[in-house]
Predict the 3D structure of the following.
Amino acid sequence: MIELSDLEVMELIAQQDSHALQTLFSRYGRRCFALSYRIINNAQSAEEVVQDTFQAVWQKASQFDAERGGNVRGWLLTIVHRKSIDYRRREIDRRPPDVPIDDVDFMLSVPDIFAEVDQILLQERVRSALANLPPEQRRIIELAYFSGLSQSDIAAAENLPLGTVKGRTRLGLRKLSELLHMEQDQSDGVSATGGRP
């Protein structure tokens, strides 16, 4: 069976093909959830945002312009990001904080850098874990996630069969997940013991 490109899937969604919407969800649903969860920090709310996003895709697929909007994945993640930020502002950031009035001026004068630091630390953890992957798996994942290439583009660029690229991606992501979980478990263990072994 020939795998449809993202653009072909979008064309079918514009024709109200529900199977095409399921195909798009199977490709990007987890990635959309991960992005939304990082912004909202609540699984149920992130699921709601993802549902809203794919509902919007169903309704507005005909408006997607590849020449203006870039690739489908980027367009989809932009929608998720915007909806997650909107949700956070509406449901979380709107709640009045319990802050003494004397502290307000200080809080307003200091930039909120924690989100930026958190992102930098995550990137460092991922890059550190990537260094422990076999070179052929690391190369594929770097091209996909840091250069934004599709698996077809990687296959062409690296002169590899598409099946090989998919296999290395799957194995590399599984190993990367294991490494990140191991590192998190070790970090949690240190925190739980107050830094003592």
Notes: Residues 1-95 form a domain with the Rna Polymerase Sigma Factor; Chain: A fold (CATH 1.10.1740.10).
